[in-house]
Amino acid sequence: MKLTPGPRSAALRISFALVVPLLIVSPSRGADRLPPPGIAIPESEREQLTAGAATLRKDIDALAKEVASKPKLLTLLPEEHFGLLVVSHLEGSGLRFKLKQAILDKYFPDKRAPRVGLPRPKKELDAYAGTYLANNYCRTCADGANEAQRFEIVANDDGSLGLWDDKWRQVEPLLFSSLDGKRRIGFMRDSAGTVMAVSAGSWRVLERKGH
């Protein structure tokens, strides 16, 4: 698809995602023979299939190397013999996480009872409130911290924390869950006991401004 530059093109954001389902085959399971015994494959077709299989093998090997360097992008369910890799070109978008969660909810729903947090006094939650920076900003750039994405954590009157347009309640010290109990965020304190960072898992880590 070709986009013609124009006054609206700067505001146009198109998200693409590549979903790669990975079948994790048990070592004890033997592969079925193809074609079945008694059915011959013409030589010309055999050559095409062999060449196609070789190309596929190269693609799989290349993907395996890329995934090996980015293990946090890979979701594995060994007991289901299944793995999933979702890659999106739009940095900062939640597309990858939403798509992954939709697939897991559809085919592998979590049957565990959600662990829901409880309200805490606002004065206690004030220790977590403040401005946080996405910690993947350039550390060697003069304006690295100034250019970093900023997120506000607020202590709500209903005993929850506000972050990423959602509310979080404390499950245990430094650990909070979303109101539906399906997602978690964890905080870290420094040696002096001051809250210094929060993580939602994987690379989603925020560090407190000025810490």
Write up this protein:
With 211 residues, the chain is α+β, with helices and mostly antiparallel strands. The protein folds into 2 domains: 14-107, no CATH class; 122-208. The protein contains 4 helices and 11 strands. The strands form 2 sheets. The protein has an 8-stranded antiparallel β-barrel. The radius of gyration is 24 Å and the shape is elongated.
> How many domains in all?
2
Find the structural class using helix and strand composition.
Answer: alpha+beta
Q: Secondary-structure element order, as H and E? A: EHEEHHEHEEEEEEE
| Main beta-sheet strand count, sense and barrel state | 8 strands, antiparallel, barrel
Strand content: 25-35%
Radius of gyration: 24 Å
Distance between the termini: 45 Å
Enumerate the strands of the largest sheet in spatial order, edge to edge or round the barrel: 4-5-6-7-8-9-10-11
What global shape is seen? elongated
